[in-house]
Specification:
It is a single chain. Helices cover 26% and strands 23% of the residues. By secondary structure, the chain is an alpha+beta fold. The protein folds into two domains: 44-150, 3-layer Sandwich (Rieske Iron-sulfur Protein), CATH 2.102.10.10; 169-370, Naphthalene 1,2-dioxygenase Alpha Subunit, Chain A, domain 1 (Alpha-Beta Complex), CATH 3.90.380. Strand 7 (111-112) and strand 8 form a beta hairpin. Residues 410-415 have low confidence and may be disordered.
Length: 415
Amino acid sequence: MSTQSTMLSLLQNRPKNFSLERPFYTDPDFFKADMELIWYKEWLFVGHDCELPKAGSYFTVQIGEFPVVVIRAKDGQIRALHNTCRHRGSKVCTGHKGNTARLVCPYHQWTYDLDGSLLFAREMGADFDKSAHSLTSVACETVEGSIYVCLADQPRDFAPIREMLGPYVRGHQLKEAKVAFETTIIEKGNWKLVWENNRECYHCAANHPELCKTLPESPTSSGNDGFGADPELIDLWSRCEGVGLPSRYTIDPSGQFRATRMPLVDGVDSYTMDGKMAVSKNLAMNYDVGSIGALLFYHYPSTWNHYLRDHSISFRVMPISATETAVTTKWLVHKDAVEGVDYDIDRLTHVWLMTNDQDRLVVENNSGGILSPAYRPGPYSETLEGGVAQFVHWYSSFITPRLQSRSKPRLASVA
């Protein structure tokens, strides 16, 4: 039986609200199918507009087997290009980020303009057609300060993401931001385990003492539906929407992305140890309605985000292997905020640096147990793991038709 057929059979026979079978978290062939059927076909969050302040600013990202460079061109537009020279395939941009007037391959100095067009290739003969050897483009879209790319030859329509994310995030002004700090950690676990851990706070009280000072341990904290008539939540939504700040829970029909605003712990304004603002100069617009809580935005498979009054935090998920995942976190503050005057880096980042490392350990322990042949899928808590069940349902329903398409036998042609 092929890998795709095995995956399909296991998904079709999975008990409702149970975790996945062991190979989904451990098997390299299952991982390859995830990459080919999801990661290489879907829109992926890669970074922020503010990281590319001028023409020639760039950063690089590795998406599975594909190195990609994201760059601001001379016309001010942000573009994405396959970071693979059209000569003999060397990476053109070898650094994590930088600024350049032109893209020059370090191997043989083939030189490209910022839009990827080939400008110069030494000793290639009079008949060589430079126009046929531009860097290959990658689909790229920006929305309210966030950058997404898609590796598919024919990407799905980006409009639904833009239509949801735009109105919710606009008041948090990511276009007026700068990255104050960023970090990448490698979690030794499958990308789905990283997401499953993120989608619940069932584990928070025992594992996240710092985060629990600000984030309530409830289904609300994972941005899941089923809030009922929570008066604190309804009050927050009403106050914020009364001043034009979208807040109510909304989810795309596919289940792939969602947004909602949630209250923080009573008396808390930001993710700090004392609950007070981490940045004195607000990133969000000034809304005179008291606490605006935290806006949450999730987009499978690559990002979750927290937008607060004083700063915002983005999290980017990138699979490395069946049992390794890179998680990049960026703290964004107002572009005019001055470190040491308007904010202290340690105070700004402490809660989530601790939480990320604690989550890394949780995921690695989870992965270590699943690697055992004794592992059997277990049931989710209906009360506190609804977000996990929703993620696994999305994964199952999303990849199943693609597996079915791959598994259909091809009819032999008749001569």
